[in-house]
Amino acid sequence: MTGFSLGGLVDGALNLLDVFDPIVEPYRRFHEQLPPKIQQTITAFIFILPFGILYAIFTILPIFQTFYISLHKWEIMGTNIRFIGLKNFERLLTRDTQFHQAFEQTVLFVALTIPIIFVGLFFALMLNRPVKGIGIFRTIFYLPNIIAVTVIGLIWARVFASSGRGLINAFLEQFNAGPIPFLDQGDLATLVVSFTTLWWTVGFSMLIFLAGLQDISQALYDAAKVDGANRFEQFRHITIPGLRRPFAFLCILQVIASFQIFGQVDVMTGGGPAGNTRTIVYNIFETTFLYFQVGYGTAMAVIMFAVLLVISLIQLALFRDQGVGN
Amino acid sequence: MTVVGAELQRKRQKALRRQGSLYVLAVGIFALIWMLPVVWTVVTSFRPEPALQRNLASLIPYPFTTENWTFILKSSQLWKWLGNSAFVSTTHTLAQLTVCSLAAYAFARLDFYFKRPLYILVLIGLMVPFEATFLPVYLLFSNLKLHNTLIALILPGISSSFAVFLLTQFFRGIPLELEEAAMMDGAGRFRIFLTIIIPLSTPVITALAIFTFLGNWNSYLWPIISATSSDVYTIVIGLRKLNQAWGDVNFYGRDMAAAIFTALPIIIFFFVFQRRIISGIAINSGIK
After folding, report:
1. Minimum mean pLDDT among A195-209, A219-233, B135-149, B157-171: which range?
2. B128: helix, coil or strand?
3. Is there a contact between B287 and A246 if contact means CB atoms under 8 Å apart?
4. Residue B287 has pLDDT above 60, yes or no
5. A50–B99 CB contact, under 8 Å
6. Does B183 touch chain A (CB under 8 A)?
7. What is the ipTM of this complex?
8. For residues A154 and A171, what is the distance between their CA atoms, to the nearest angstrom?
9. CA–CA distance from A294 to each of A46, A100, A273, A288 (Å)?
10. Is residue A116 left, alpha or beta, with left meaning phi > 0 and alpha meaning psi from -120 to 50?
């Protein structure tokens, strides 16, 4: 050991603060005369202040501003601003077919990405064995999850590119088959983006389930074996109930994440073909930064916020009933 | 145990081991297929453009070239973007940890007026998606003329409700006696925070730091609207812009090399912090 210690360093640095004593000391004497709860309130507010300022600027105020802006016809350059009440919402909910399409597309993505949880469960069960060398596969399956969406999207867009400039179609070309218009046809493009999302994020579900599996007591399985339960019965009556909590957790996360799909779409399809993969967030992005209608864009954001809030409240309530909430 | 019994047991273990390695082999083949696009990307980055024009679907890097890679590694732009990413994510992470741990200490340890309503206000942030706030924040930065600066990429998200929540939970679990002893010795709250609470929270702080860093490094929506000039691109955005500029056809191998260049720092980061990441997921997701 060398003489270096982090604690000592911190202590030393703090001692340097003693130079402020002439200013601090009179205040400290005053501070110590105050009732304890007032003392602590002052201290607490000083501790919270940096967070509080940023939180107010970047979270609390913007929520109100989002609602405020959504009641206006508001162009992003800021010259043309006019209060129009709920007209944005009226147009969104009754007439804007593009928004309706984006909403449906988003719900479709949510539905198509729910299977990620089950694939994650499958991977977890596959790797939950005390076999030497199995750990490396956890790493392999999880690794894509921490890579940026631009890299993932670029790779998979090239695997599935519609012409001979895509891996699969170039491969098919050698047998004079194809080309399959993966990204030029709406339904196929939706499936491709969903599959990419699966490949990208399934490792996360896998790790959560693996942690869940390790929490199930081995004694339960031993007892079941003594009672003559076969492997399927053990799975059905011990494993599945034991994984309820991670499952609930992943459901909430997956639905919320899929509702916010943006990056994959922007990188792989640009919302196309013909707006077929345009999601709500992508629609907000286009409305605001392509057509500069920030008022209308925030109205969409408000609707999305409301939907997400309702979803998370429903899910929380549902899962709490089953005793897995908290 | 008889000799025969021992012999039998050895045989059984051997069979089990063989079964185990067969299993690993099967999983290995599956993993290889699962990762085939990555293998293909790496191979493609080492193939010359004319060969790629003739046939893309090959896993054999012959003819072989390092031309794509020398081009990418010589690109001052890519290194600059990498530097931007490193600076932005590091600063963001340090700032978030500082700001949020200070607030969390107050919520965990001090008894003060308005504590409950303030804490609830913080928890409300857990339910607010980024989409509900990012347009006003965008307008704010426009008014302050702060777009296309690194500050604009660092600031949003520093005040994380989740971080405060996680740290508050953890700080509450630290035994009070340690603090009381320090207070007897005349230590102030700030000294206690720095010399007792923070060192005892290393596991949770490390986990939080890793995931904050990753989240900021990989963030896409905010930097793509805020950073529109190439000087301030992060590497993630830079790759996207290069990809758009080069098109799908012309620089296939180069694009693939750029993609790997973008992913590599994070892959290295992953292997350095592997254990912490794997165990941190459970901490970070509140499952444990």
Report:
1. A219-233
2. coil
3. yes
4. no
5. yes
6. no
7. 0.89
8. 18
9. 36, 18, 25, 5
10. alpha
Nearest to A102 by CA among A295, A297, A326, A282: A282
Number of residues written out for chain A: 326
On whether the CB atoms of residues A298 and A76 are closer than 8 A, the answer is: no
Domain extent listing, chain A? 6-70, 88-321
Structure tokens at A58: 């970047």
CB pairs under 8 A between A and B: 259
Task: Choose from A139-143, A221-225, B54-58, B278-282 the range with maximum mean pLDDT.
Answer: A139-143
Give residue B48's pLDDT band: very low, low, confident or very high (50, 70, 90): very high
Q: Is B117 on the interface with A (CB under 8 A)?
A: no
Q: Which amino acid is at B147?
A: H
* Predicted local confidence at residue A190, as pLDDT: 94
Q: What is the pLDDT of residues B214-254, one digit of tens each?
A: 999 999 999 999 999 999 999 999 999 988 887 666 788 99
Q: Residue A325: its pLDDT value, please?
A: 39
Task: Give residue-wise pLDDT tens across range B56-93.
Answer: 888 888 889 999 999 999 988 999 999 999 999 999 99
A308 residue type, one letter = L
d(CA B190, CA B197): 10
- Do A309 and A229 touch, CB atoms closer than 8 A? no
Chain B residues whose beta carbon lies within 8 Å of the beta carbon of residue A155: 37-38, 41, 259
Domains and their CATH numbers in chain B: 3-66 (no CATH), 69-284 (1.10.3720.10)
Question: Residues 68 to 107 of B: which have CB under 8 A from any A CB?
Answer: 98-100, 102-103, 105-107
Asked if A174 lies within 8 A of B105 by C-beta distance, the reply is no
Locate B33 and state its tokens: 């297929």
Question: What interhelical angle do B161-172 and B76-109 show, nearest 10?
Answer: 50
Could you tell me which of B169, B123, B128 has the C-alpha nearest to residue A312?
B128
Decide: pTM greater than 0.80.
yes
Residues of B in contact with A140 (CB under 8 A): 31, 34-35
Nearest-CB residue to B112 (from A7, A37, A139): A37
Q: Which residues of A touch B164 (CB under 8 A)?
A: 51
Alpha helices in B110-201 (DSSP H): 115-124, 134-143, 150-154, 161-172, 176-184, 189-192, 198-200
**A154 and B255: CB-CB below 8 Å?**
yes
Question: Measured at the alpha carbon of residue A71, what is the angle toward residues A69 and A77, in degrees to the nearest 5?
Answer: 40
Name the CATH architecture for the domain at A88-321: Orthogonal Bundle (1.10)
Q: How far is A227 from chain B (nearest CA, A)?
A: 25
Closest CA in chain B for residue A148: B218
Distance CA B92, CA B279 (A): 23
Does the CB of B232 have a partner CB in chain A at under 8 Å?
no
Separation in Å, CA of B2 to nearest CA in chain A: 28
A211 near B281, Cβ under 8 Å? yes
What distance in Å separates residue A277's CA from the closest CA in chain B? 17
Contact status of B139 with chain A (Cβ, < 8 Å)? yes
Task: Answer whether A294's CB lies under 8 Å from A66's CB.
Answer: no
C-alpha pair distances (Å), B22 with each of A183, B36, B269: 38, 21, 32
